[in-house]
Amino acid sequence: MTGDTALEAEGLGLRYGRRARRWALRDCSFALPAGRICALVGPNGAGKSSILTLAAGLLRPTEGRVTAPGRERIAYVAQDKPLHPRLTVADTLRMGRELNPGRWDEPAARRVIADELDPRGLVRDLSGGQRTRVALALALGKRPELLLLDEPMADLDPLARHRLMGLLMADAAERGTTVLMSSHILTELEGACDHLLLLAGGRIRLDGAVDDLLAAHALLTGPVADLAPHTVIDSRTTGRQLTALVRREGAVEGPWDVSSPSLEDLLLAHLRHPEGAAA
Ligand SMILES: Nc1ncnc2c1ncn2[C@@H]1O[C@H](COP(=O)(O)OP(=O)(O)OP(=O)(O)O)[C@@H](O)[C@H]1O
């Protein structure tokens, strides 16, 4: 790690419209290290799209700031993948090349399109998943230093999702691209993301390297007993049997079987109890 920060937020807050009573985001501060693939997770309405839109510079914060220090090339793929419906796939890529003179990476864009799409096909005739492919091709062709993706895989079939995720990860690793990616598909984040931001109610509840966060938690099964001094994030009892995910305070000693949670275990526990997750 270089210590370089690719995206930084300080006291970031957003209210849509002056009269809006609710804050979509409040007091969000984080520093995303360069070269990380960061998952942005949270329930519907948590503020994920708002953070990505602010980071892309398409909205102004109501308070605080979010900056991408030293990064000029930022690509943003919005949830609704806005593309020009009357252009063909080939025209869309040509437009990408013309809008990014001297830095357009045609092979990277073509790798995303692969043999899956007819370059002569009109964008308006494409399915949702096919449009996603074109939007991702445009984003990667731009050779971004920071890539902001809002639920990029949501409308892809499982195979396309698997392939495109692999391609995205390989491309990011090769170029050292920093990626911030919102997703509800927890199983896909495992192994793909090395950093995590969990949002709930417009606030950051968990922020850190995935390995550190996993090491800070433990999954316990065994008899019902006092779990202090550990912080219980989620627990269930069946008869006298307890299953709990805790944030460790030192070594866990007691009558339980102790294992490391998967990223999905960790996220589900925190999503079930977003208030308890506050770090
Ligand atoms: N254009 C808008 N005008 C007013 N309120 C908005 C607007 N966009 C979002 N909001 C509100 O801001 C809050 C955060 O929304 P946001 O879209 O950022 O959540 P999200 O985490 O991306 O949700 P999802 O998982 O459903 O995509 C919600 O309460 C939402 O109602």
Automatic annotation (TrEMBL):
PANTHER family on file: ABC TRANSPORTER ATP-BINDING PROTEIN ALBC-RELATED
Keywords assigned: ATP-binding, Nucleotide-binding, Transport
Domain of life: Bacteria
Pfam families hit by this protein: ABC_tran
CDD domains in the cross-refs: ABC_DR_subfamily_A
Gene3D superfamilies per record: P-loop containing nucleotide triphosphate hydrolases (3.40.50.300)
InterPro entries per the UniProt record, alphabetical: AAA+_ATPase, ABC_transporter-like_ATP-bd, ABC_transporter-like_CS, ABC_Transporter_VariousFunc, P-loop_NTPase
Protein name per the record: ABC transporter ATP-binding protein
Start and end residues of each ABC transporter domain: 7-226
GO molecular function: ATP binding
Organism annotation: Streptomyces roseoviridis
